[in-house]
Amino acid sequence: MKKVKVALLGATGMVGQNFLRMLASNPFFEVRNLIGYTSVGKKYGEAVEWIVSQNIPEEYIDKIVFESDPKKIDADIVFSALPGSAAYGVESQYSEAGFPVISNASAYRMEKDVPLIVPEINIDHLELIKIQKKNRKWKGFIVTNPNCSTIALVLALKPIHDLLKIKRVFVTTMQAVSGAGYPGVPSLKIIDNVIPFIEQEEEKIESETLKILGKFNGESIDYANIKISASCNRVPVIDGHMESVYIETEEKVNIEEVKDALRNFKGKPQELNLPTAPKEPIIVREEKDRPQPRMDRLSGSVPGMSIVVGRIRRGIDEKSLKFIVLGHNTIRGAAGSTILIGELMLKLGLIEV
Amino acid sequence: MKKVKVALLGATGMVGQNFLRMLASNPFFEVRNLIGYTSVGKKYGEAVEWIVSQNIPEEYIDKIVFESDPKKIDADIVFSALPGSAAYGVESQYSEAGFPVISNASAYRMEKDVPLIVPEINIDHLELIKIQKKNRKWKGFIVTNPNCSTIALVLALKPIHDLLKIKRVFVTTMQAVSGAGYPGVPSLKIIDNVIPFIEQEEEKIESETLKILGKFNGESIDYANIKISASCNRVPVIDGHMESVYIETEEKVNIEEVKDALRNFKGKPQELNLPTAPKEPIIVREEKDRPQPRMDRLSGSVPGMSIVVGRIRRGIDEKSLKFIVLGHNTIRGAAGSTILIGELMLKLGLIEV
Amino acid sequence: MKKVKVALLGATGMVGQNFLRMLASNPFFEVRNLIGYTSVGKKYGEAVEWIVSQNIPEEYIDKIVFESDPKKIDADIVFSALPGSAAYGVESQYSEAGFPVISNASAYRMEKDVPLIVPEINIDHLELIKIQKKNRKWKGFIVTNPNCSTIALVLALKPIHDLLKIKRVFVTTMQAVSGAGYPGVPSLKIIDNVIPFIEQEEEKIESETLKILGKFNGESIDYANIKISASCNRVPVIDGHMESVYIETEEKVNIEEVKDALRNFKGKPQELNLPTAPKEPIIVREEKDRPQPRMDRLSGSVPGMSIVVGRIRRGIDEKSLKFIVLGHNTIRGAAGSTILIGELMLKLGLIEV
Amino acid sequence: MKKVKVALLGATGMVGQNFLRMLASNPFFEVRNLIGYTSVGKKYGEAVEWIVSQNIPEEYIDKIVFESDPKKIDADIVFSALPGSAAYGVESQYSEAGFPVISNASAYRMEKDVPLIVPEINIDHLELIKIQKKNRKWKGFIVTNPNCSTIALVLALKPIHDLLKIKRVFVTTMQAVSGAGYPGVPSLKIIDNVIPFIEQEEEKIESETLKILGKFNGESIDYANIKISASCNRVPVIDGHMESVYIETEEKVNIEEVKDALRNFKGKPQELNLPTAPKEPIIVREEKDRPQPRMDRLSGSVPGMSIVVGRIRRGIDEKSLKFIVLGHNTIRGAAGSTILIGELMLKLGLIEV
User: Which of B91, B240, C110, D23 is the most buried (most CB within 10 A)?
Assistant: First the structure.
């Protein structure tokens, strides 16, 4: 199979670096344009402060950072690793010009005609693309990837919602510093400390989850009828967001059934055996003190693409349960999931090459 | 005033060290007997691996570690800094022999005839002492101090419960490593990590809170009719337990009224102006990202004796609220609160000298 | 005594915050002008991201951030907390206009006619002021405070140099993140890590030390005839620079004599009993594993103003020794020492009020 | 090739776990006996508190922990992961009984007739085995692996010593907490801290290095004529020991020649292409701020088996140089190197199977 040509928006930032690290060995994609802003014309190896692994993959070091211009890029697909603020104006230039844009940015996530996709959960929402193209008179389109905390949470909720119908969710997160990008959280603020606030994070979790678990009604998404309350904290951990989750359900909870539902959960990416799809999207651990970020963040057959759920136990009454879920925020929570959306759309024929 | 003579059980452990650090400058108490186990007969300065502050207070360095023997100690009151496991058998020897024992250990906390006291909240529970002495035919008695996470939580709950009647509480803790004593949590387990489990901690929070907020009915305590679910985590922080709290109430919540209730909360210790009583038991912060353990754990007029509440905001509906509370686990959560019980009982004439 | 009026350059940065924290309770000085750049006209409490202690001292919260203009300030003395880059141009405006400028910045430290002062070591270097004023035709003058690592090192070297004549010094530092200011070192770079490089730090240690230990020859400073090699590392510590020091001497080393020389070391600030002068500039610890940053950084009668030396022991041969020295980088290493220079010059009549 | 049968002494400790993790995929060896002490008869998966990676390799989970008895084991070779204290008595039982014992413990390292081996450096020292067997009338023998800090240091010194003849070495280490085993360093002692002391570590570095770089004279080892001074510190890092090294040489230093010598350094393990031998034993980095433990500890073709040297630069004079070296303390510094000795001896026919 001929590789699909990729342009990457925001190639020098931390999220962009994660895209490149994962795309370097991806059998579907080939990065053609590294698009940057402050460092156009420089060699990537000189423009970037590489922070996400030991070494920059060889193939990128001498590539020239490209200016952002939809007319000049040589790509079949555009991945966006832009920060939310920059993404709004830039991404639409590419979709208008006819490119399929798959974005990790928050800018368009909650727009009515923009799909917000977790590949194992709601690929039917991709139907929104047609509506989006009509609404906006775009030749291309934008598909978005959720917030890093949302993805781990919603992957754990989905099989439980299918089984027991969830009514309410109370979640407290303990999030890694890599979630804030680079330079991100100053060490002076987080060593020997916890910061009980992350800008806009609670709002994202509370809203995005309902859209992802919602139903496409032919025109738009009917949000899931769940109430969610999120409290977000930053902890001195490099990678891996932990979430302490309490759930109220309509049905009575049988803990073993819940574990089975989580363990057996699979989606289209597993069925299609996509390169970035982990064999088990959800790993259930039985130890009393797992998952832990440093020990378990790289779990799964595609390291970092499985979420890990542990301490599944009853809540206050028989229609409730609680657990801990861990997701690798820069892999399953960002670059990895976005790439997986791309792989899926390609296989489903939703991107023309 | 002549100082009251103190014997300290468990003097060489980390909790014992915190007692000694605080008692060194206490105007009510004078430590006579440092009771240890493995190091009887040694000088304290040689027996202890001092870990809680820069230097051992001078006065203890040459004191000889004393054996545990109720017949030999020279004390008006016994403070216990024993671990839960050891406390059961040892503390009763002292109460049987006629000593007032004020214990930070968990052993007797939930016994029906043993008061579990937060000095600002439930001093009427001290009435249980009479029943205890009768039941057990003890000349002395045991009064207990709650778990470190419980104290911070229940101090925040009390004024809200008085105002709005609390129905349910969902709490996720992020606890400091000093809560596990010394040597406690291995660094190999907690650097760049979170451990989502602390032995017996959730059970303690869920049960002790109900007893403390309960009512003395003349014979025993009627537990508060509140449902609590706790999820406990260890984070790489030296001191200061953070708790993310979600509360459902019977009454509608007015956030400003809640803040006022917390800010204005006072108890007998403040009224009596006790040496270890902070002027404000509860400090409310308005910043979007406070309290934080490293910044705020030593808050208050008696450093570490005030809890700090922040991010007070509405929950899912109008009969709910959520916030973060921080308490210094080894001061307000252990030695400091236990000493404050002693000061209070002394002033109230409940301890004979 | 009427308080001396102070203008502070760089008031909103982390070093500036440390100045303000220490000046808030200083009996000699009163801060009149908080000089900032990006936030002129705002209230200080709104302009600053306060990071150095729990709360901004009350008195500064509503003060208006002042523009940098030597004609407008109301001050007897100017303290500079500017970064090195900005200091060069700005500080000279104030000295030219007649102000005594005492600066923590690196800009002028190594200029021939500018005194680089550690108050306990080389106050005779203040004679350079006359030469400086003549050379530069300034009505005022600039006096500088050394680099944070240099101060701790040179305080430990001075009594040893007087005793044994030092020939060579090999020093490896382990420096706290607060040394990089705010935001400074990203947490993503330093959690579970060591960074073996700090821009220009080795050069500063290697050169400044020789100037401070040098002799004023009536015209300029003859640098000390010592060879120094420094290797600098950043470690995940909030405050407190550790330095592992190996020294070769001309005389044979007697370890007990070295300890005595360090313990008995005093300077003019101690003689004059200045408010920011610690009773013991150097504390010697005998334990095998001290000093440690978290335990010992606030040592001394003025917390953070004493350095702590430990593990003093023989080197490879009898004309060598090695030890660990710890200095609080933002107190003794920056704001505290600079303020102490001010106090000293005031008492010595070198600043007109 | 039929796999060689291994018995592992100290299988449940942290070093033992690292052996098992690495041996699980080793083509030469097959672990037959997991020898423990407190947990004999239990399944390994229940006996161990697994700490070194995400999961225990499947093959060990149900293996029964075996008692230590040379008569009962089914092995061709014995690896020892015992702590130094226990190793002395136990290891000799196995060597006496005829087993080749390759030990990571310190017990026998400095005995005159015991080889202390770094496989790339001094395999000729294995000649000592004959003398050892004669001296001790053992049917088997003991070969030892150096201290974790020593290995990284001596690998960096060897090519430089060959090139320039080293006279003196001043080294300050910054060592990871995993070097202390499990539970090892309490988190309460090391978060936001540095501990400037590691029991017996400086002595080990100063003596072992000279033995390894020494020459076999037909009877014993003539120690290298180098003077070494070590100062050892513990830092809050999980894995990877950093060492700040200053070297005085007899010859003038040419930095580029030094880099070439390090880069081109190879030994018998590379020549024989052994499974645990990294292609490059020494990786030289040119960035100004590398190596760093978290970024570089898993460097090399066999992750963790290459040391990384950076910041190679001139010292005080032209016959000196300095640099930073990083070695993965539990891989190259312990289990990995010990296994590599085993592979090498097997290939060289020094172990009969």
Answer: B240
